[in-house]
């Protein structure tokens, strides 16, 4: 049985990671998972938030947002509504936690990196594309900070790599990397964030229609681990390439 | 090795479920998981939100909040700050999804149930206590609606039961139902929402300090399933008792 | 003529004052005036707001709020609406002023006490129950601060006691301590805050339907003074008891 | 003993009531109590708020505000801060209640009058000047509505007149109509709203420094009743004059 | 062809500039352009915003607002709506920029002047009346600051004078100083801010109905320069007069 | 004398107009003026805002925003701050007015087009690039609506074309299309919006440092008209090309 876009159940959509997309940011990546396109920028500033001053430790945080017409129907701007919705908050927090999982705060020193993940076009999996792209932007920003001696020589703030993918059960079949049409029809939907060595940073599974059994959960986790491994390879390839 | 409060790793804190706590609400429960105390009220109104009108289907939603001095240090009121924080949003959404997992919207008819979960005292596990208590308040509210003929005779809006518990790894040991002190020291923290028949509605695991391996995830899920089964029994006992 | 709940015009509803309700707060009281139940917590922090720094004087402030389903019909959360309503503001300010009337700022030293009065169930007289309960929580918090030597030995920050009661004219008859049903039918409604020695801290009378004459005002003040004296006795009894 | 501005204790400041100040509003008054100047406009619109539709009854409401530099030190604009302060809310509500006390909603029919009271210059007593001026603006607006046949022939929406004055105890002496310098030094401060026939609409007394005794309260009420009678006369004189 | 109010195309409405309108502000002017009346106050405070501290330079800023019933139909208060509209923002920024054009920040020293322009009655040209009046209030405030030695002896913070007028094409005819009725019918609408020596500070032209040609633009600029020269003379006359 | 990037004073930066950038929007353009890159989407919905219903006329509006790291230093998100800044409001209004200048509302019928202009990278001239790009997106959206028969056959909602450019005086020399570095050093700064036939829709000139004379204004307008003509040609070329 083939999927709506012809993929096999365990196949990712075409993934591209374009580094150096912005001339201003210390790290910037335009990442695409199929038609989902997210601009991830990493902004480095010296100093940390007030509650962390004097600790000798750095900080990494993230903000996620969607352009109003990133989706099929135009959404109202959160700036116009005057408040951030629950979904936006939740995803921003998830991205921040995921990236902090591979940061050594001491090695980073009292510097802050803000990761902005702005969805330019959405077709499912925007949060997982954002995490995968933000890692590459973060790596570039950390290298920039090392080059500027903001990070002490010999210290490596990155303790590993991190990527993320969505999985779900659609029509009883576990699928990797759901596009939007699959996502809305999924019985169960899960986002998994893994480190490059195959351990878990976040596992968020939700029964959309019917509760799911342990075996289904296991099958989804298997798929996700495989998908993250492929994404890790794509990240490494992008970082190995000379920046355009 | 015994825990900070003398429990074994697979032991819940004392759980109490006090029905009919409020004279106004259609369903109301004061639930406690140890020192965590949450007042859950279920408010029934005829009609549904605008986007659902004419569908013949009902709606269930939830709002979670904490009193300012529910915690050890007083927190600012979100009403005074003028906006709801990300954590509050996230938990409100989780509670709503969890309860909707056992609702047959058609059977509920065009009625809305709002579940308010207000934490009066916090000592870890407030969201899982809220879900567990809210289910009982919801069951009472549904019975009330049936008594008032808001729900058509012979229809059962509840398709099952739902409860929730936290699990985590502290000092390398998987523990059930973390109290606050354990929670802050946990390497990994997971909230699991199960139906009464042992399937999953939500699985949310987060690596707080170090990424976790598949076997750790499996051990936590095992613990959680056991804990939810015990909570299901407590819910049934409370519902079987004549209301005070 | 007897009242809706069988009381005589000059009779209070049953009053309970339960100290030590919260394990975290420096002072905490669950107060009830009949079916009205308010959780009052007193939080002590060292230091004072910026505008008072270096004055050697302390500060006492209050915040009042209602749980959404404290009332017969569910109200929207002010945190969700993003702003505090006029009624909430007004009552918070009244409670703060009332408690400050019995505080010697110099003796308190540069410490702040925040009184949170959260209405868990409402049946008329929530602001007067809140003031009456908050005084007991404040007394416990001050004793705690003295025990911790935050307050200098030999100094007594409390200059007296304070309690409050509502009075009103219903069907031409002046009544003490209105319940909700009486309150909505009152021609005139008054909230009176007294010190333990029978003087006035606040007198707020409002003609709901028809303007009131001087003799009616006098009759209401007489009733209120009697009611506050009884409440003062209840406060003293609660404070004399060993805390549970 | 004479007062800071040479008045006797029972003397009002010079009061002026200038009708027809604005060319757009259906009623408009620039009222001054000494250096306190408030622009009161009454805006009539056909129809009532949603919750009152179909009742056949009208509505009257008020909004109070201060220009940023109405006071000695410039205050931040509430529109810039993005929220209305507690004091503003409280006074707006007081003005609305006071004017509604002399309105027959049935006679008004389904029309709404909004009273805007904007303080152009403040020197104590802004809320009492606002109520006193707003009554005159309201009377003009009601006459306008009668002229336009919005109000049925033979119906009189005004059931009486209303005015307000502040009183207080300064240095142990009860004083009428406090100016700002007196207000900040007052031990007790009271705002009293009376109808033209000498009954009370609102009595709001506050102990600023020390609780007050019943005799003090009585003395203040006596003063206030006298003051309101004088203000009633000034309102009638203004309304009797041909509008400029 | 004469205009709606009998003026010739190149004629201003009657202009009045009343200094010293407020007893509190360091400079204050009630300016009128026909029925448009704006209260302009200038508030001087020592010190500058944080981003300017230590620069030795001062700051001038402005806030524009309209009373709710300044217009023919009552508008909602921006403080009640909780946010400032785009038009208000835009005009506040325009006024601030216009006045800063004639300020020597170094000579002003680290002092701040806030210009509040509150429209009491609107009949077209409120922003241009505000700028014209605010200049006079600013001049008075600067003189006050010189008298208080906040500004160093021998320094003149004002480098020139500034005034503003609206022009527009109505029915094909270029007109000076549009009243509201002309403004709503204008094909093109332009606000021009000039210095006393006839140079431009701001030129803001907008095609309301049809794009405008270069010759039309030229004709409007000619009119505006003439109008600003007359307004400059009125400002000088007001400043030359002894303040009431 | 050549400019910082080697251009002559009357030379535009390289301009690219990439149509069909987004798969969801009815019209979408990625426009660049040198390093300034703006994503413009046009969203068509049937129906109009409430105040326009039943008029038979359509509506066009615009929203402008910047990604946080579009600029050299990261700016706070307006959605996080909870309000839109004055600059954003002002530019959104300018874009909306500019596009409405070439719309025949009757021909558009009761349809709404929202133009979202999101600055992905900023280097001066973001508002003029936005207007120029938004016109092309609007043209595509109108064609889409014609194809879907939302617009009646034989009706042309576009009455012309519109483009915009910035001009300014830097070091005494009038320059076309300022980049960021030129913009911050400009003595005078002007944004000009022209129709394709060379008439003006908006002229907004501001003296940043010193007031400007009539001859300077004339020189800037000459430059702007030339620049807009070139941009009009680029728009036509883009629209003539087959969409990618």
From TrEMBL, chains A, B, C, D, E, F:
Family, similarity comment: Belongs to the RNase PH family.
Q: What InterPro entries does the entry give? A: ExoRNase_PH_dom1, ExoRNase_PH_dom2, ExoRNase_PH_dom2_sf, PNPase/RNase_PH_dom_sf, Ribosomal_Su5_D2-typ_SF, RNase_PH, RNase_PH_bac-type, RNase_PH_CS
Q: Mind telling me which NCBIfam families this protein's record contains?
A: RNasePH
Domain of life the protein comes from: Bacteria
The protein in question is named: Ribonuclease PH
Q: Which HAMAP family match?
A: RNase_PH
Q: Per its database record, what is this protein's job?
A: Phosphorolytic 3'-5' exoribonuclease that plays an important role in tRNA 3'-end maturation. Removes nucleotide residues following the 3'-CCA terminus of tRNAs; can also add nucleotides to the ends of RNA molecules by using nucleoside diphosphates as substrates, but this may not be physiologically important. Probably plays a role in initiation of 16S rRNA degradation (leading to ribosome degradation) during starvation.
Q: Which reaction does it catalyse?
A: tRNA(n+1) + phosphate = tRNA(n) + a ribonucleoside 5'-diphosphate
Asked if the Swiss-Prot or TrEMBL record annotates the protein with the keyword rRNA processing, the reply is yes
One GO molecular-function annotation for this sequence?
tRNA nucleotidyltransferase activity
* Listed CDD domains: RNase_PH_bact
Per UniProt, subunit arrangement is: Homohexameric ring arranged as a trimer of dimers.
Residues binding phosphate are 87, 125-127
């Amino acid at each position: 049985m083939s999927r709506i876009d012809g993929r096999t159940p365990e196949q990712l959509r075409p993934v591209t990671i374009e580094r150096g997309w912005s001339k201003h940011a210390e790290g910037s990546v335009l990442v695409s998972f199929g038609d989902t396109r997210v601009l991830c920028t990493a902004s480095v500033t010296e100093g940390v938030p007030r509650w962390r001053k004097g600790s000798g430790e750095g900080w990494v945080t993230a903000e996620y947002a969607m352009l109003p017409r990133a989706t099929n129907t135009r959404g109202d701007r959160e700036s116009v509504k005057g408040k951030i919705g629950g979904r936006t908050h939740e995803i921003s927090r998830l991205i921040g936690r995921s990236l902090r999982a591979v940061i050594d705060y001491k090695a980073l020193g009292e510097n802050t990196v803000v990761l902005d993940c702005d969805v330019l076009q959405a077709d499912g999996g925007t949060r997982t594309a954002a995490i995968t792209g933000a890692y590459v932007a973060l790596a570039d920003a950390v290298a920039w900070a090392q080059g500027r001696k903001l990070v002490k020589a010999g210290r490596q703030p990155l303790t590993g790599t991190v990527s993320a993918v969505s999985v779900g059960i659609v029509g009883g079949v576990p699928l990797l990397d759901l596009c939007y049409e699959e996502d809305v029809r999924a019985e169960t939907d899960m986002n998994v964030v893994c480190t490059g060595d195959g351990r878990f940073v976040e596992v968020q599974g939700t029964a959309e229609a019917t509760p799911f059994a342990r075996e289904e959960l296991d099958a989804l986790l298997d798929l996700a681990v495989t998908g993250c491994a492929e994404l890790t390879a794509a990240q490494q390839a992008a970082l190995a390439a000379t920046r355009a």
